[in-house]
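Collaboration report, partner site 2.

Our partner group contributed sequences for two proteins of shared interest, and the home lab folded both. The records are reproduced in the order in which they were received, starting with the first partner submission.
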Amino acid sequence: MHYKIWRSNKDKSLHLLCGGGPAAFNVLPAAIRHLGPWTGGAEGDVNRLRLTYRVQLAEQGFVVIYDHVSKLQLENVAGVHPANTECPTCQGKAGVPIHAGLRDKECPRCGGRGWIKSPGR
């Protein structure tokens, strides 16, 4: 199943998330449809949505979001594994300069990996 995001032309911070396809927008309650005129936006797979949006979309069939477009995060973002952090000695380059910067050698702290285990683990 797909979703589509709509942005209101009256209020640029008002967004509407509903199922994909033109029929999904037409079956929305009239009070929600008349908050705009709406401009179509991004589309994607519902399984990639954040859990809160997925649950509301399944229960109600739509989600009204009031947030600035730069802060709008609909999908889960895969990040760096929290157990590994960048090596502070080589700054993730896996090498450190020797002989006044003429050569590089393997970083003694991270062993040339560029990362170390976080201090909490």
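Second partner submission, folded after the first:
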Amino acid sequence: MIVNFSSGSGALTAAKITSGTHGPMAALGEWSEQSTITHSNIVNPSVILPFDIDVNGTLYDGSEGQGMEFNFALEPGDADVFQFSFLDLPRTVSSSIVLLLVKTETTLIPGQEATYSNDLIVQEGGNYSLIQLILNFADQRLAITHSEGSFGMILGSNANWNLIALQRNTATGQTQMFMQECTLAGSQLSLGEVVGLSHSVTTAASLITYLRLQSYLRPAHGGGKTTVKLLAMREGSTGFPPWNPGTMDGPQSVSADRTEVEQITLGISGPYALVRIERQTNGGAYSVLDASRDIALETPVFQYVDDTVTVPNTYRYKVVGLVGDLETNESLSPTIDLSEPFAEWADAISLASATDDLVYTNPSNNGVSTSLVLPAGTVTKLRIYISAITGTMGFKAALYDGVEALLESDEEIASTTGWLEFTITPYESAGGTFTIAWQIDVGGGETVTLKFGVGNPSQLKFGAVSYAAFPTDPLGYGGSGGSAVAVGALVTPPP
């Protein structure tokens, strides 16, 4: 089924859609107006597709077609809906692929709520897959592929023509959407950069009931327009994407970090929601860890944890994007050598035992310290756990030895809860009892809350010292309690 918008100008009508259709439409269904069509125009983008489409033995390249334009300036706030409904409902369509050629040129008025550009939908009962272009505050156009999940690909400020293919498998409930930019030279469209592939799975498979183009603009919140040049649909799910995109770069980045003694965490960035992950051990051949993993493009970096690694081996990872029947180039991670010493945090107490609050209010001239036992090795960081904070404030931390002589210190800005880390000049420790002391620059009306509880050794001291005067050398704090604050140090054991 090919929708070729007929020539003319002015408002789009159902008759124009029907008369402009190529292919055996009568046997399948018909187009109808679901609302009064008065605001969407017929336009002619004057472009030729970079491929041909076979319609019952006749080649159709889209060059004769008009386009359907959704325009913020013309949209009154109500939706214009163009819907193709199958005559013999429920229509048994095992699977389908929808292809669109779309150009989105929209902007958002600063401070206004997020707004829709338009919906380009394949509807299947209560569970639907769709192509929906959404504009948000950062002028990012987001392509979503399903009703039950969240956003898929981020298009950025992409105002080019885009080829979009949506594959829906009604047996499995899976949906894939692939998008590729096109560049215009004269009247000829040429394939450009691949935007990416998103993926989703609905809770249940269902049959296709209708195909819909729906404008859903918010003229009070933005401006610009979206133009649909071509809409095509066919049954079946093979041959996806329905054009040859050419050579595709691999995932944008693949990081690898040793997160435990025998654990490596990968960070994988899009733009492909489906990837294959492979692992190399000690420079040997790659083996498949995960043949098809959905990396959820709505998060900037997807984390994959490999806890099947062992000391003292070295590991490297290869990630390949999966685009229907095709694969992208590979992206490689750094090599991780597990024979090297692994830095671990040594904390005064565990968060599970940190049941009480140590609250700082303005102004505070109290410095506080907690003692803790550290293993032998190189100390490179300190950390303190913040359970509550209002405002943004300076935070100093210092490391003292067993006789409270100053070793190293650092200053950071605190504004959020969680572990606040301080990077110090590396200190070579022979192991034993140390002290971590701190002072907070709490301003008017601000508070910050730390956690404390039973520690080993249990030693909490206070000292009358200002933020500017901290750290003192020696520490010189007096008074002690029976608890310790949730603080710690990062220690790398000796080779």
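Feedback sent to the partner group on the second submission included the following. The radius of gyration is 30 Å. The first helix runs from residue 14 to 19.
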